[in-house]
Amino acid sequence: MQTEFHRISRLPPYIFEQVNRLKADARARGEDIIDFGMGNPDMPTPPHIVEKLIETARDPRTNRYSASRGIKGLRRAMSGYYRRRFGVELDPETEVIATLGSKEGFANIAQAITSPGDVVLVPNPAYPIHAFGFILAGAAIRHVPAANPEEFLSRAGNAIRHSQPSPLAMVVNYPSNPTAQVAGIDVYQEVVALAKRHEMWVLSDCAYADTYFDEANPPPSILQVEGAREVAIEFQSLSKTYAMPGWRMGFAAGNRTLIGALARIKSYLDYGAYTPIQVAAAAALNGPQDCAREIRTIYRSRRDVLVESMGRAGWQIPSPPASMFAWAPIPEAFRAVGSMEFAKRLLLEARVAVSPGVGFGEYGEGYVRIALVENEQRIRQAARNVRRFLDYGRNARPMEAAK
Question: Which residues contact residue 18 at a Cβ distance below 8 angstroms, ignoring those fewer than 6 apart?
Answer without folding.
Answer: 340, 344
